[in-house]
């Protein structure tokens, strides 16, 4: 019987391996080798590009104005910040470690813009990813909240000589005695928290209500950003240690007070505006005090504005992706950076008109209206009345220099106000005079010799306490 012819394409498993198997083996081996070569080449390529990019992208190659506009700090301040943060930076969990300098610059870019920028010095870097920027922001923020860093740059005056310097500065600039700081609150948005969301909701959006106290030079001397947006101004201050310090100082005989907005209740340690006094009110001791208070209170308003202009991550349109604890740390970090830049006198990058309008609108709807039925502290009202009478009584009208006899004083006639006790002038410092053109406005301070030093005027004390 004849064997059945094999089917087409049939290969016997008994016979030796056919030639096609040899060709397949050769092709497979060559393809595998080529694949390994391509894989190695592809693996090496990013490293070369990465190292090249790191060499080409250096933020410090920018011009000084461009560097400040991008990072809000000067080059020497940025380098100094990197050195300060190195000992307190948390350990990285990434396999590829980046330098502290790279992390700090990436974090500064986020703080200044409020956005995750995937570039340094305006150049795209393949090593900069959103994951890296977010990690860098968290690590740098954590480092800047280290107690050693916070205490160095944000410090409330606990020593008598520190308070005297701040008091004297406020008195020289605004004519208000015994002021150790201006206080106000601002809202910084957060994501909806899983717990206590009612305490963080301010009837408009979820936020942290940040209490800021500043000196006359717009430096932040105290910041509290742990409480939610539903708390009132008074509630935040009542829970803060500054209240205890000020109460103790006033009870011991040293007059110290803060200057606060109408959202606060009048206290012995907190001076607030007198209700129902407007620009159209007639000239009176109450009107005079209110004008002086308003111009002094403007200091903290400018401080908050500069803070949010420099570090846009605190504006009302940002931070909605961060949890409350992270936002609290971001607030402290930005306040530290604000003081670093402000003490050096670096320029403030202003908000755009749209940003400024949006920020003002958000803050207005977030704050609860001022209660008309608020009960004032009688002791606080008495302290404000004593200050009001003192400021009014220390004013005097300068005599006319002409020989035509007395005449009715016109608006253009100058009024000289002396609120400081007569002291012997120091050789390097002349006694200041305080002038104004309108008795309802705050007096201007005219220095005959602007060169002075706090340490070279021991006869001042810091001004009369009573």
TrEMBL record:
PANTHER family xref list: NUCLEASE HARBI1-RELATED, PTHR22930
Name by which UniProt lists this protein: Nuclease HARBI1
Gene: LOC106122353
GO MF annotation, one: metal ion binding
GO terms under cellular component: nucleus
Biased composition (Basic and acidic residues): 33-51
Superkingdom as given in the UniProt entry: Eukaryota
Organism per entry: Papilio xuthus (Asian swallowtail butterfly)
Obligatory cofactor(s): a divalent metal cation
Coiled-coil spans in chain: none
Domain DDE Tnp4 positions: 183-339
Family annotation (InterPro entries): HARBI1-like (IPR045249), HARBI1_dom (IPR027806)
Keyword tags: Hydrolase, Metal-binding, Nuclease, Nucleus
Record family assignment: Belongs to the HARBI1 family.
Start and end residues of each stretch annotated as Disordered: 27-51
Pfam families associated with the record: DDE_Tnp_4
Subcellular locations according to the entry: Nucleus
């Amino acid at each position: 019987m004849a064997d059945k012819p094999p089917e087409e394409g049939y290969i016997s498993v008994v016979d030796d391996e056919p030639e096609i198997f040899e060709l397949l083996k050769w092709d497979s081996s060559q393809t595998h080798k080529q694949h390994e070569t391509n894989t190695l080449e592809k693996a090496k390529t990013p490293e070369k590009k990465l190292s090249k990019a790191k060499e080409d992208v250096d933020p410090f190659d920018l011009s000084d104005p461009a560097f400040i506009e991008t990072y809000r700090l000067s080059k020497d301040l940025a380098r100094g910040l990197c050195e300060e943060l190195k000992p307190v930076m948390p350990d990285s969990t990434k396999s590829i470690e980046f330098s502290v300098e790279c992390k700090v610059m990436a974090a500064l870019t986020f703080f200044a813009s409020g956005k995750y920028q995937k570039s340094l010095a305006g150049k795209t870097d393949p090593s900069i990813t959103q994951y890296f920027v977010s990690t860098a922001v968290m690590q740098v923020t954590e480092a800047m909240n280290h107690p050693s860093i916070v205490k160095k740059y944000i410090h409330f005056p606990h020593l008598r000589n520190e308070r005297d310097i701040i008091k004297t500065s406020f008195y020289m600039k605004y004519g208000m005695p015994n002021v150790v700081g201006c206080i106000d609150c601002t809202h910084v948005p957060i994501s909806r928290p899983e717990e206590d969301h009612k305490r963080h909701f301010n009837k408009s959006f979820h936020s942290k209500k940040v209490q800021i106290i500043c000196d006359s030079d717009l430096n932040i001397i105290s910041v509290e950003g742990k409480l939610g947006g539903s708390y009132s101004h008074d509630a935040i201050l009542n829970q803060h240690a500054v209240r205890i310090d000020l109460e103790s100082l006033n009870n011991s005989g040293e007059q110290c007070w803060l200057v606060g907005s109408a959202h606060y209740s009048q206290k012995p340690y907190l001076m607030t505006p007198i209700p129902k006094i407007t620009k159209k009110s007639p000239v009176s001791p109450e009107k005079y005090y209110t004008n002086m208070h308003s111009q002094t209170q403007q200091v903290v308003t400018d401080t908050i504005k500069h803070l949010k202009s420099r570090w846009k991550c605190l504006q009302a349109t940002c931070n909605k992706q961060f949890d409350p604890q992270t936002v609290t740390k971001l607030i402290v970090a930005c306040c530290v950076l604000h003081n670093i830049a402000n003490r050096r006198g670096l320029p403030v990058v202003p908000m755009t008109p749209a940003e400024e309008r949006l920020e003002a609108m958000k803050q207005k709807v977030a704050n609860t209206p001022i209660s008309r039925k608020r009960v004032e502290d009688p002791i606080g009202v008495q302290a404000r009345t004593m200050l009001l009478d003192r400021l009014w009584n220390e004013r005097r009208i300068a005599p006319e220099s002409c020989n035509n006899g007395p005449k009715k004083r016109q608006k253009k006639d100058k009024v000289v106000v002396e609120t400081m006790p007569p002291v012997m002038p120091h050789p390097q410092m002349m006694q200041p005079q305080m002038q104004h053109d309108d008795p309802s406005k705050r007096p201007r301070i005219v220095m005959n010799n602007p060169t002075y030093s706090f340490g070279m005027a021991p006869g001042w004390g810091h001004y009369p306490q009573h």
